[in-house]
Amino acid sequence: MANRTAKYATSIHGTNPQYLIEKIIRERIHDSKYWQEECFLLTSALVLERAVDDLKYVGGTYGAKIDPTPFLCLVLKLLQIQPQKEIIYLYIEQTDFKYLRALGAFYLRLVGKPVEVYKKLEPIYNDYRKLRMMDTERKFSVIHMDEFIDDLLHKDKVFNITLPRLTKRIVLEENRDLEPYKSELEEQNLIPTQLIQEKVEKQRDERDREYRSSRDDHHRRDKHSASSHDRGYRDYDHRDRHRHHQDRGAHVSHHRSFNRDSSRDHHHDRKRSHDHHKRSHDNRKRSRSRSPIAEHDKKPSSSSSSSSS
User: Fold this and answer.
1) Taking a C-beta distance cutoff of 8 angstroms, is the pair 172, 114 a contact?
2) Scanning 82, 113, 148, 185, which has the fewest C-beta atoms within 10 Å of its C-beta?
3) Basic and acidic residues: which segments have biased composition (predicted)?
């Protein structure tokens, strides 16, 4: 019952106001000792007293167990009881208690509309007081109030809490919902407008010059890489053609030498075969002439020749 949103509270950004804090962080807050002992049955006036007495630093959660800070517990308490906007405006506009002012600014950033947020938080840019901030490792550092407001207006998460989406100021200016922003120093003419314009133009020229130089460098690198890439391809192509011609010439010369050797071997084989046949024929002829039959055939012819004589 003590953790429920007040019955008279209205939905914020289409949801229960307490749901603007993530569930796991919300549960850690409900289970924390500070919430159970110091935030029970608080009203908007009592929240003011607690903020003045207890808040010595700002922060979200810390440690491995995601323990909440008193600052975050009071933020959730404001979401639970949903005080009137005029009370929150008083938190923000007073300048005596800086942590109460930071509490009201954080709460308004969660529940306020864009135009309302800009109109109420931008004047705090002129507050340069120091704030102690505790990080997730329980280490303390010092920030200034204007830095804290700038984070609320431009960052998506502050103190591990996701902030609702905030319309860009330039869009609201184009829609005529907001006037162009002017700092207090500019309104008091402590900074001449001409110097501001010259500084802005100088910064714009420097950015343009850096952009052009980086673009030219990028273009030169691309061109160099492309030319070296093409050169490499040409070298590869020339080398491949050279290798192809070498391989083709070696193949042709090998083929010619092979044909030459084959014809020479064929000629030698034919000559060797011819010589072999000739020797065989001569041997047969010689053996036939030496046989006894041949001698017997020769004798009668000799006797007949003698008788005829």
Assistant:
1) yes
2) 185
3) 198-239
Helix axes 114-121, 98-111, angle to 10 degrees: 160
Cβ burial, residue 113 (10 Å; 0-12/13-18/19+):
middle
DSSP-based three-state secondary structure for 243: helix
**Spatial distance between the Cα atoms of 132 and 143, rounded to a whole number of angstroms:** 7
Q: Is 66 exposed, middle or buried (0-12, 13-18, 19+ CB in 10 A)?
A: middle
Strand partners for 61: 68
Sign of CA dihedral 116, 119, 120, 122: positive
pLDDT over threshold 80, residue 219: no
Q: What is the Cβ-side half-sphere exposure of residue 292, based on CA atoms within 13 angstroms?
A: 0
Q: E strand or H helix at 157, and its extent?
A: strand 157-158
Please check the confidence at residue 108 and state whether its pLDDT lies above 80: yes
DSSP at 15 = B
Contact between residue 17 and residue 80 where contact means Cβ atoms under 8 Å apart: yes
- The residues spanned by each domain of the chain are 17-189, 192-260
pLDDT of residue 307: 44
Q: Answer whether 0.70 is exceeded by the pTM.
A: no
pLDDT tens digits, 30-57: 999 999 888 888 888 888 888 998 899 9
Q: How far apart are CA 121 and CA 147, in angstroms?
A: 12
DSSP-assigned beta bridge partners for residue 67: 62
Chain segment 242-269, per-residue pLDDT in tens:
666 565 555 545 555 556 656 666 666 6
N-term to C-term CA, the chain: 171
The one-letter code for the residue type at 33 is K
Tokens representing residue 99 in the block: 């942590």
83: its two tokens: 């005080």
Q: Are 153 and 159 in contact (CB under 8 A)?
A: no
